[in-house]
Every structure is written in structure tokens, then in C-alpha cells.
Amino acid sequence: MNEDADELTYAETGVDIDESEAATAALVDAVGDLEGTTDYAGLVDIGDRYLGLATDGVGTKLLVADAIGDYSTVGIDCVAMNVNDLVASGVTPVAFVDYLAVDEPSEDLSQQVGEGLSAGASRAGMALVGGETAVMPEVIEGFDLAGTAAGLATEDDLLPGEAEEGDVLVGLPSSGIHSNRLTLARQAATREHAYTDPYPYDGSKTVGEALLEPTRIYADVLDPLHDHDIHAAAHVTGGGWTNLLRMGEYRYEITDPFEAQDVFAFVQEEGAVSDEEMHRTFNMGTGFVVALPEGEATSFTDEAGGRVIGRVEAGESVEIRGLSLT
């Protein structure tokens, strides 16, 4: 870590987490009772099945894309952030609709974004059914990209959503930072570097390209999820490893996490970010975690990949790499 640099935290980048959560709570309170929800998706009972819906955007990762003029991967991120939330609920994605808002139209931007959306939908095995492009120069500066994924699930497909004491934890590796908390990653990376500078860990790409590595899509684990007695799953997004607490109030003892990709070391070094802040903010190499009975673990990993990374115990924390996160 750069000992001479001031420590950078997510809050210090201009995003007040407490204020953000309070604003979200105010919106939910104003809306009133919701039809049906899991921790990751909305559910509507349509008779013999449930319609699952998830909506999300790409966030400030778009600023990296804009800075280097490479919009080819952000469509994949947009699909991934929605699809992975459906997967964490046991819902199979079937269709995706996007919303692209720009301050001025650009054929190049639209084409690259569209190609990324198409690639993401293909990886997720679902249909891309169009969307909306809005030109709003007085509202948008640059562009914004968001979308909604729709999926289907039977009662049996849906995950219970609650881990059990004694469960083992199976992790699946991430592809890098994914599309979460890029505000911190961007500000750390650009303290001493430009996005176009060579990336110190791989001279064949730039700093911007390292940050733009697209989010992994976990739709390929749906069949193994449905074939096994899975108790709960967590998509490790913003909030980092504290997302595991969404599977229930337990102690999640992580004994064998996947190694964090070098992009995390780069961000931590450049931003003088503490180990705790890194693990509260980023996935640190593991993008998806499943809680299941020990007897199911070998069969599940044979089918889905990944490996056993820990256990569920009594308590209420996430224990990883000498850190205790609550």
C-alpha cells in the first residue's frame, strides 16, 4: 500500500452510503406494500409460475468507457448485473429490455452498446427484446445505461433464500471488479495514472481496459442450482463480502476464498485503501456464493465449477482473511 497517500474510502469519494440507504428506504416506504420480493428480485405469481424481474444499471463504470471511447463491454455489464440477481433467486432469465439515455446521439456509442447487450443476452441464454433510447441534453451529461431482466421460475425453482447452520459455502470466481463501486476504483486508479496509461500488471492493456473487464454472467449455474438442495445464494455486488449476510444472520467463515485479481491490488495500492474497506466494497475475486448442505457440495461443484470456500456457523459476521465484517 502507498503509505504516503491519504487513505481513500467509498464514502470519501462522494457517495454517502447512509444517505443513499435512507433515500432508498424513503422510496420503498412511499411505494407501500410490494407484491413479492426476494433479496435480489421482484416476483409476481402468474399461476403455475412466477415472473421474476430485476432492474439495474452500469453505474460510474460508464465514465471509464467514455474516457477511453470504448463502449463495447458496458452492455455485457448491464445484462450481467440484472441476470445475476435473478440467478441468485433461482429465476431463469428469458428476456431483457434496455434504456439508453444520452445528451446527444452517437452512432458509434449506440452500436458498441448494442453489440455488448447482444453479447450479454447471448451469454445469459435469453432474448434481447429492444428498449428505449432517449436524447435528453438538459438532463443527461454523457450517457447512462440501465435495463430490466425478466425471468420465470416454478415454486420448486425458487431458492429458499436462508442459509442453515452447518451449510458449506461454494464460491464461483469473479472476472474482476465487475460493475460495483467503480467510484472508488476510478478515483484510486487515477490518482497517479490516466486511463490511457499502461496497466502496471499487464503492459498489453491500459488502466481503463483493466477496469472495464466485463462482469461475469452466472446463468450457467442455474441448472446445478435447480438440481441440488440449495438453501441460498449471494451475488457479491456493492457492499462486497457483507452481501453474504443477506443469506441470513449467521457467521460466514471463509477459509479458502479465490485469489483476488491484480486489479484489486492496483486499486488498493493507488488509493491506499484498507483491507477492510476493500472487502466491504468489492468482490475480491469471488462473485457468487451458494449455501448448501455438505453432502451436496461435491456434486454441485462437479456440475457448476467453483469450490468450497467456507462454512455457515452460529453468529452474525463474515470472517475472511483475518477480517470480521458485520
From TrEMBL:
Q: Which residues form the PurM-like N-terminal domain?
A: 39-152
This protein's superkingdom? Archaea
Q: Where can this protein be found?
A: Cytoplasm
Q: Name one GO molecular function term.
A: phosphoribosylamine-glycine ligase activity
Q: What is its EC number?
A: 6.3.3.1
Against Gene3D superfamilies, the record matches this protein to: PurM-like C-terminal domain, PurM-like, N-terminal domain
Instruction: Answer yes or no on keyword Ion transport.
Output: no
Q: What class of enzyme is it?
A: ligase
UniProt record similarity statement: Belongs to the AIR synthase family.
Q: What is this protein called?
A: Phosphoribosylformylglycinamidine cyclo-ligase
Source organism per entry reads Halanaeroarchaeum sulfurireducens
